[in-house]
Design goal:
By secondary structure, this protein is of the alpha+beta class. It has 1 helix and 7 strands. It has a single domain (26-113), classed as Gamma-B Crystallin, domain 1 (Sandwich), CATH 2.60.20. Strands 1-3-2-4-7-5-6 form a 7-stranded antiparallel beta sheet, with no helix packed on it.
Amino acid sequence: MLAALVLALPLVAAGAGSAAAAPELPSVQVDARACSDTDPTPQIRLVLGPGAVVCYGGYRGSLRVDDLWATGLASGGYWGYVTCNLNPNYPQELFAPNEFVPLSCPVMWIGITGPNWTP
């Protein structure tokens, strides 16, 4: 009985793995990631000050940033927006690929959108 169960396990595992072989959709998550020049799409780089940078990437969506004071944003290969926490109006700055957006504010949100997106 035990031998039959042990022999059946590879068949169950093979069946379970077939769903994992389906093509994966790109992640919709925007996330902070280690800065790298090897990503297929150049990363968004939030400049906090001289030598202090936080990198982001992903597909589409937004990420709440913990009110990091930023002096600029290099857009990398992305379209999107950055929202500053400057009460009461929370201004948004839109960006397109290969742009540098000067900032002087605590950043609340970073969003990745498609081209020609409007808030």
